[in-house]
C-alpha cells in the first residue's frame, strides 16, 4: 500500500453512477467504515465523469461523518471533468482533490520532507 495511507487507511470506492435508491445503503456502508477505523480516508472517484446529485450527496455525507469523527478526507482519481465540477461547487475548499493516488502520495511526501 502507499506511504500515506498504509494498510489501515481505507479507500472508499465511489460508483461511476449512483441511483437515488442506492444512496442510503451507500451512506450506511461509508458510515460503518469510518466509525470502525477512524483516521484518514480517500474517496476513489475512478470512473466518475459526471457529478450527479446522488454522487454529491454521498461525498458531502462522507465529509460530514469524517469531520464528526475528526478524520481526514481526500478525493483521488478524480477526472478533469469531475475536478472541474467539484471546483465549481467549491467542494475543493473543504476536501483536497487529486487526479491520482500518485499525486496524493507526492503531496504527502512533499509535506513530510518540508516539515523535517
Features:
116 residues; 4 strands; 4-stranded parallel beta sheet; alpha/beta; single chain; Transcription Regulator spoIIAA
Describe the protein.
- This protein has 116 residues and is an alpha/beta fold.
- It has one domain (11-114): STAS domain (Transcription Regulator spoIIAA, 2-Layer Sandwich).
- The protein is 47% helix and 13% strand.
- The chain is built from four helices and four strands, in the order E-H-E-H-E-H-E-H.
- It has a four-stranded parallel β-sheet, sandwiched between helices.
- Strand 1 (11-13), helix 1 and strand 2 form a beta-alpha-beta unit.
- Helix 1 runs parallel beside helix 2 (53-68).
- The radius of gyration is 14 Å and the shape is globular.
- The chain starts with 10 loop residues before the first strand and ends with a helix.
- Mean pLDDT is 86; it is low at 112-116.
List the helices and strands and how they pair.
Layout: E1 11-13, H1 23-37, E2 40-44, H2 53-68, E3 72-76, H3 80-88, E4 96-97, H4 101-114
Parallel strand pairs: 1-2, 2-3, 3-4
Number of helices: 4
Q: Output the structural class.
A: alpha/beta
**Principal-axis shape:** globular
**Strand count:** 4
Q: Tell me the radius of gyration.
A: 14 Å
- Rounded average pLDDT: 86
Classify the beta-strand content into a percent band: 5-15%
Poorly predicted parts: 112-116
CATH class: Alpha Beta
Entry summary:
Helix content is 47%, strand content 13%.
Amino acid at each position: 500500500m502507499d506511504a500515506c495511507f498504509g494498510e489501515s487507511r481505507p479507500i472508499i470506492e465511489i460508483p461511476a453512477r449512483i441511483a437515488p435508491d442506492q444512496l442510503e445503503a451507500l451512506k450506511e456502508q461509508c458510515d460503518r467504515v469510518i466509525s470502525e477505523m477512524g483516521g484518514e480516508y480517500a474517496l476513489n472517484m475512478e470512473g466518475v465523469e459526471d457529478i450527479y446529485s446522488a454522487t454529491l450527496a454521498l461525498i458531502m455525507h462522507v465529509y460530514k461523518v469524517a469531520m464528526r469523527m475528526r478524520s481526514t478526507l481526500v478525493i483521488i482519481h478524480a477526472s478533469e471533468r469531475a475536478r472541474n465540477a467539484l471546483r465549481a461547487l467549491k467542494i475543493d475548499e473543504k476536501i483536497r482533490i487529486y487526479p491520482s493516488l500518485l499525486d496524493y502520495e507526492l503531496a504527502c511526501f512533499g509535506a513530510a520532507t518540508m516539515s523535517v
